[in-house]
Amino acid sequence: MSFPSITKLELKNKRVFLRADLNVKIQNGQIIQDFRLIKTLPTINHIIKNGGKVILATHLGSPNPTNPDNLLNPNFSTKIIADWLIKKGYTVEFHPDLEKAKEHSKKTLSSIILLENLRFFKGEKEASLTFAEELASFADLYVNDAFGMVHRNHTSVTLLPSLFDEKKRAFGFLIESEIQNLKKLKENVEQPFVLVIGGSKIKDKVPMLEYFLNIQNDLRPSTILIGGAVSNVFLKAQQPSLETQSFDAKTIGIASKILESAVEKNIEIVLPKDVCTKNTDTSEYKIFDIPEIPPGVNCLDIGPKTIELFKEKIEKAKTIFTNGTMGFYEDAHFKNGSQEVLRAITSNAHALKFVGGGDTIGAVYLFELQDKFDFVSTGGGATLAFLSTKEPEQELPGLKAIF
User: Fold this and answer.
1) pLDDT value for 126
2) 128 & 256 share domain
3) How far is CA 202 from CA 24, 227, 324, 330, 340, in A?
4) Is residue 153 domain-shared with residue 206, that is, in the same domain?
5) CA angle 36-110-31, nearest 5°?
6) CA dist., res. 170 & res. 147, Å (int)
7) Residues 195 and 165 in one domain
8) Could you tell me the CATH number of the domain that includes residue 27?
9) Coil/strand/helix, residue 112
């Protein structure tokens, strides 16, 4: 299958609809993490360098398009993206009104026209052909570089590209890099392969865990380290008497099946031995071994015994993928687990090291470790979805729409 790369498009004097994923973190009216913006610049630069005009579109946050107040809320407006690009030296026009944007796209000298947050428009999530046709009228070519959205069936990601001839649609450099690098975890893994899983939602991790438990032997992880809040359900499945948190029977059953499958496949699953906690009544911080956790406390980080155990497993790895943090890393009391585990991964000079996931990337940047990974994925759910499917190019809607 020939890869539909942007390098195959004739860009000179063409208007290029560039669907990016610039869903950046904003705090007090400032962008506090511009990782996705920086990763999109090579595609923007390529279009401009080759004589094209960028019609840039993205989501930002999760506004409700039926609430008109969102249109007045600067926290959801992409104008902040325009300001960032202008500071980087780009010539940008920001148009919150689509009709004005379309009019200016045909005559402006600006190299970038930035559209308002696509989530402000009802047609974006409704698979609206009318909305797709309106967006298609802006451009001669379509490029998708929004890897973080390839698992979503939104109009601008799946329906819009279908309105362009297959020779007039392509992927940008970011998506090309994501596919090339993440495929290494599916096709060419050097053992020992260690998965490091954290975060808070087991449902987000289950498809990936099931995929890696059931693929051919030489591609399976030898060890899976599970920390963070998601480890609580596995601990509960293993030790029903624990009172760390209540889970429904279905969730516990899922965790139990994963633990049983790992034993059958000779895959080691390593769970926390101790945790750092906060008493909800007294706000007291303590470390407890797992069997001794009392009721009424929140487990917000892995403890020192677990950190040392995880580091021991990480040191032996030749391939590592990590997704999810070990605890509430934003709080100084509970950052140690995430920081130490990420440092252990990046200190392994013999391993290929991959990281993905929104919160995980936040921790990586907080601890200034981003340059020490072999690959940092821009996706959260998209990364997990890519790693959970046998043929992602044909199963993920945003990829299938281009291939």
Assistant:
1) 87
2) no
3) 24, 11, 11, 20, 22
4) no
5) 30
6) 13
7) no
8) 3.40.50.1260
9) strand
Q: Kindly tell me the number of DSSP H helices and DSSP E strands found in the chain.
A: 15, 17
194 exposed, middle or buried (CB, 10 Å; 0-12, 13-18, 19+)? buried
Measured CA to CA in angstroms, residue 293 lies from 134, 245, 299, 331, 352 at distances of 57, 11, 9, 21, 36
Domain-located, residue 394: no
Q: What is the mean pLDDT of the chain?
A: 92
Q: Which helix (H) or strand (E) holds 310?
A: helix 304-315
276 neighbors 228 (Cβ within 8 angstroms): no
Q: What is the pLDDT of residues 10-29, one digit of tens each?
A: 999 999 999 999 999 888 88
In total, how many domains does the chain have?
Answer: 2
Q: How confident is the model at residue 244 (pLDDT cuts 50, 70, 90)?
A: low
Which range marks the domain in which residue 101 is found? 6-176
Q: What is the DSSP string of 312-337?
A: HHHHT-SEEEEES-SS-TTSGGG-HH
Whether the per-residue pLDDT at 68 is higher than 80: the answer is: no
pLDDT for the residue numbered 40: 98
Task: Please tell me the pTM assigned to this model.
Answer: 0.93
d(CA 88, CA 197): 36
Maximum Cα interatomic distance, the chain, rounded to a whole number of Å: 70
Identify the domain boundary among 116, 144, 176.
176
pLDDT class for 302, splitting at 50, 70, 90? Answer: very high
Q: What letter does residue 17 receive in the DSSP assignment?
A: E
- Secondary structure of the chain: what % helix, strand, coil (to 5)? 45, 20, 35
Q: Is residue 237 part of a domain?
A: yes
For residue 203, is it within any domain? yes
Q: Are residues 63 and 90 in the same domain?
A: yes
On whether residue 51 sits in a domain, the answer given is: yes
Q: Is the domain of 205 the same as that of 295? A: yes
Statement to judge: residues 63 and 110 lie in one domain: yes
Residues in the chain: 403
The answer, yes or no, to whether residue 213 has pLDDT greater than 80, is yes
Alpha-carbon distance 172 to 365, whole Å?
24
| In a shared domain, residues 192 and 166 | no
Torsion angle of the four alpha carbons 150, 153, 155, 158, in this order, in degrees rounded to the nearest 10: 60
pLDDT 10s digits, 320-355: 999 999 999 999 999 999 999 999 999 999 999 999
